[in-house]
Amino acid sequence: MPIRASIFLFCLVRITMAQLLAQEEKEKTTALKDLLSRIDLDELMKKDEPPLNFPETLDGFELAFNEHGQLRHIHTGEPFVFNYKEDLHRWNQKRYEALGEIITKYVYELLENDCNLKKEILPVDSTVDEPKSFIYMSEDALTNPEKIMVLIQGSGVVRAGQWARRLIINEDLNSGTQIPFINRAKEEGYGVIVLNPNENSLEVEKVPDSAKKPSPDASDEPAEKRERKEERENKKKKDFYEKYRNPQKEREMEHIPIRENSTPEEHTLYVWDHFISKSLAKNIFIVAHSYGGLSFVNLMIQREAEVKNHVRAVAMTDSVHNVWHQEANKSIRDWLREHCCNWVSSPEPLDTLVDPMLNDCPRVSAAMQHHKKTH
């Protein structure tokens, strides 16, 4: 078949498939709208949701980690049950999130007490009143003359010391935390720095609009009239939100960004500039999971010469970096091919070379078929 005919046929197939998919999507949307129109939301909400009041300790949940690092019920020995109340997914999810916050604090305690890491507050010149973050470091992280290991987690709810909250709760501490990496590194003489790339803001209760002072350029109309007008305009939106999305009238929160640490990328760059680059270690090794790989590539783009001079190897796990979208130059791509390895989800035996979609660094099998989610 002539080349032009082949191209035409290929384009025709692409267009036809796109049209079929668009029609199918349209039919699904129509069916969904029809279904929603027949749902009586008032009837749906008649089933009262229990109060969103949850314990603040593991004891309160009647849970504890056993000698194997598994989270178990202190009386029955059973694993954590997500569907504690049937047909109340939102309540169960809130309960799970409350437990997750306790787990985060528990892991912090392990880092400090068992791993003997110290907390360093960020920004380093923060004032008393501004939002802060922190990282963890071993005592010799900046003075070890030979080598340090830097751990960068993925995105999501996980905080310093965690790879995946779900694994901590459903599997064990060794599977879901960075503690085995930290202990092994220290045993082999590495200094350790544990980043905290998802601690990007301070969460505070949102001030109601009615409590805010009007701006200087506000309308000259009487305040009472203006308030009535604003109340009418917002009533429908608030009614729907309060009635269906927020039946218990939860507090509305807002986030105040942490200076120079408001994103994982900013945080990684900040920690490099103020800690990692100041280490006396001749050799820096990095372990980066998922979004942590993207943050590292961003660091390379921002501090290419420094990274090349100090970092000896990077171990990535299911990294989501993209050297093309991130516009990494050729010298960076060449360096990544020589110094990085990305262990990816695959059913192949461990360390089997996997054909990469992007020719940036070797990708080998992690002998797992599913990416370890962080939530």
UniProtKB/TrEMBL annotation:
Coiled coil: none annotated. The keyword Signal applies. Residues 54-350 form the Arb2 domain. This is Family with sequence similarity 172 member A. InterPro entries: AB_hydrolase_fold (IPR029058), Arb2 (IPR048263), Arb2_dom (IPR053858). Residues 203-245 are annotated as: Disordered. Keywords: Signal. Residues 1-18 form the signal peptide. It comes from Cyprinus carpio. Residues 203-215, 222-245 have a biased composition (Basic and acidic residues). The keyword Ribonucleoprotein does not apply. GO terms for cellular component: nucleus. PANTHER family: COTRANSCRIPTIONAL REGULATOR FAM172A HOMOLOG, FAM172 FAMILY PROTEIN HOMOLOG CG10038. One of its GO terms (molecular function) is siRNA binding. One of its GO terms (biological process) is regulatory ncRNA-mediated heterochromatin formation. It holds the Pfam family Arb2.
